[in-house]
Amino acid sequence: MEVEAQRVTDSDVSGETAAEPLDTQAVVVRYESMVYAIAVTHTQCRGDADDVFQDVFLTYHRRQPEFRSEEHRKAWLITTTINCARQAARSSWRTRVVPLTTGAVDAAPVQFEFATIEQNALFAALTALPASYRSVLHLFYFEDLPILRIAELLELTASTVKMRLSRGRVLMREQLTQGVFDD
Amino acid sequence: MTDPIFRQMAEQMRPSASVRQELFDRIDAEASGVHEAFATRPPRRGWVRWLAPAVAAVTVAALIGTGLSGGWSVNSGGRTNTADQGVTDYAALYAAVREAPAPVQYAMGDGFGDRWAPVPTAETGSWTTNVQVQAIDEGDTVKSDGRTIFIAAGTQVAVVAAAGDTTRVLARIDTSTGDAGKPAGKGYTLQGPVVDLILRGTTLVVLVTEYQPRTTDLPVSLPMPRNSVNLPFDAALTKALIYDVADPSQPRYQGSLGQSGGLVTTRLSDNVLYLVTEYTVADQDGAKKDDPSSFVPVFTQDQVAEPARPADCVIMPAPSGPTYAVVSSLDLDKRARIDSESIFGGAGTVYQSAGNLYLATVDDSPSGSVAEKAGVPKDLKQVSVTNLVRISVAGGQLTVAAKGSLPGRVLDQFALDEWDGRLRVVTTMEGENAHHKRILRSGLWVLDSDLSLVGSIPALAKDEAVRSARFEGAIGYVVTFRSMDPLFAIDLADATTPRVLSALKIPGFSSYLHPWADGRLLGFGRDATDKGEDRGMKLSMFDTSNPLAVAELTTLKVKGDDSPALSDHRAVLVDAQAGLVGFPANSWTDGKAFYELYRYDSASGFAQVGRIKVGSDLDQSTAPVRGLTIDGRLYVASPQSVMVYQLDGFVQVAKVALNK
């Protein structure tokens, strides 16, 4: 699946390490966790995450974009993965919503599972968030990115990022304590 | 700094070895010049066709834009209240949409049940809809010109000849087929039932909503039951289908004009139809800078769509969601759009006078500066703010002319009234004082054409909320309630010093006030004990001939637990000439629905004329029911049937079933 690669602006050049020429395989090895993690939290199941993971690096491989710095390359991969995951969601619904005449029913897709109950609860709470909150929280908690960096990547103002972080945390807290007070 | 749980989870979010190897293989294949065509790659997800075949098994939970969800907070930083020039380019709108907080999303299956689209609120009407402002018609599910009755019934419109005992169905308009049923929106679209009708001469305008599934926030691959799927659908587009009904037995479809969003309301003034919708950008994050239709409303003529132009857009500061109020004026004679205004900040209550259209939107968590600018008393906290926009409507030309704000919430469209160049508004302020004690207060405000405050009664009633209001020129009637129903008569002749003329305290409260005749005001509402316990519904007639001493002439308890007329004025039939009042009433205990008709005369007060059973179960009882008085007969119209009664002697002369 061809993915819309995000145009990365000058502001992404933060004066970090210069981009070494890496072949695609090396880039995969260095960034596969980052890309795959974004894919998982934005598509929720392994099958789709696998597709997104492959599509992003294949697109990278075909485009061979030039990067001014390592940060630049990382930014390209992050925004491309988020876009790709979003497209995956949309196209999968297109195939689902169209009523079919044949009764072919294959196995239903399986949600991504973690090792402990707390991790699964956290994942469920995270994926229940609106997409715009999810991206911000993922980049903040899983990638440890500073707010200004997140703002640059997602083309938002810093105050919007801060607001989504705090609101997202509130929503997640509500989700996580939901079952606690049930009778 | 961050909890170790995130690192633990991150370590598990890794591709499997086989997936990684497959990627490397494909990269190698490409490197060696073997290019794989994307289109032919077999879908690795084996679950592609897992939806069961029966379309009937798809249960749809529809999310409706009711016009009360969006809001904005107005920054106090040096804003003037003068007219906006509009936005200069799409980039500003793109940024505004991306920056806005995410829209309020309901979790799947969260109390929406299996409702299809909005149930049109049934309201009864006489042969003209019971509207707020004379000569400005409002859309409704039943319309009539005195000879033909048009009734919205699901996706159809029943065309019925009002002919006493020979009342019969002349035709049925089916909006789901033919050109009328062709979606104007792109992608997977469902067209919902008819939500509103407007009749002007021989032109019938039928309003329908197109829905699209919300693909963005839906979990992509949640395990789902095999036979059905619950999808939230958003109101994507509202279409005005135009029919020529010169020959009502052969309605002719002429075309459609549409705009993004769900219907808020319609108004008709001369030959101009004003259409107000509320549009929330469904895919906020996926908005594409180069594609304006992904972040601004679109306007359609038949199947052709065009995005709103920046000059016709206004951005309110600090919106609480990516929501537009979309207002457009349609020339029904030319069947063309005259003008439009898209206000980024949401729609709320709409009040239209002869020259202006006002949007009142409530912001429930205003910032300190916003609250201050609105005039929230310093001793109160957590008070909502109502933001107002005045759009001048001159012959269909729309211009955002002024913006303002007030403390508290407006109840409905009757809480606003324009007279003598001034806007009068009643609000209810609810909040906390410094000691965390709950405070409730009703207030009356008078604004000039700049929406600046010129006069007010900020504490009209303490510990009471506004329940209804009606303005008649220089006098305003406001009902507030806690356990007693003070009916205030307020003198507004001098806008800068409004004053309370009298306050009549009676148990219960009126939800709807209607000027009946000179010196007479009709009230319909709930009855209550001294302590505020609900005791059913009641009709009241007030003597307002001396505003300094308003008195209750008579009252009558009404059978039934509830009535749509309590919240929708269009459900009330008032025929003052014949002395008749009619409305639907429901009984919860036995699930029955009735249409009640009463007569009022000064000698004997209220007397029940008739009580007609309308539905046999609660589902039917929530369908719109209207009563129309034509030529000495009462027509009770619902999507199921039209029943005709001779008023003299109140005997049924005809009954026509509509749902064959």
Write structural notes for this entry.
The complex is a heterodimer of chains A (183) and B (660). Chain A has 183 residues and is an all-alpha fold. Chain A folds into two domains: 101 residues, RNA polymerase sigma factor, region 2, helix turn helix motif (Rna Polymerase Sigma Factor, Chain: A); 66 residues, Arc Repressor Mutant, subunit A. Chain A is 63% helix and 0% strand. Chain A has seven helices and no strands. The radius of gyration of chain A is 18 Å and the shape is globular. In chain A, 45% of the residues are buried. About 14% of the residues of chain A have low confidence. By secondary structure, chain B is mainly beta. Chain B contains five helices and 41 strands. In chain B, the strands form nine sheets. In chain B, strands 1, 7, 8, 9, 10, 13 and 14 form a seven-stranded mixed β-sheet that branches. In chain B, strands 2-11-12-16-17-15 form a six-stranded mixed β-sheet, with helices on one face. In chain B, β30 and β31 form a beta hairpin. About 13% of the residues of chain B have low confidence. At the A-B interface, α1, α2, α3, α4 and α5 of A face α1 and α2 of B.
Q: How do you describe this structure in short?
A:
In chain A, 63% of the residues lie in helices and 0% in strands. Chain A is an all-alpha fold. In chain A, helix 4 (117-127) crosses helix 7 (158-177), helix 5 crosses helix 7 and helix 6 packs across helix 7.
Q: Based on CA inertia axes, which overall geometry of chain B fits?
A: globular
Poorly predicted runs of chain B: 34-83, 105-126, 217-229
**Distance N terminus to C terminus of chain B?**
67 Å
- The tally of structural domains of chain A comes to 2
- CATH top level label of the largest domain in chain A: Mainly Alpha
The amount of beta strand of chain B, in percent, is over 45%
Unreliable spans of chain A are: 6-15, 93-108
Number of strands of chain B: 41
* CATH topology (level 3) name of the largest domain in chain A: Rna Polymerase Sigma Factor, Chain: A
Secondary-structure class of chain B: mainly beta
CATH homologous superfamily annotation of the largest domain in chain A = RNA polymerase sigma factor, region 2, helix turn helix motif
Number of separate strands of chain A: 0
Task: Find the biggest chain interface.
Answer: A-B, 73 and 62 residues
The end-to-end distance of chain A, rounded to whole angstroms, is 47 Å
Number of helices of chain A: 7
- Which shape of chain A, going by the Cα principal axes? globular
Judged by helices, strands and strand pairing, the structural class of chain A is mainly alpha
Largest sheet of chain B: 7 strands, mixed
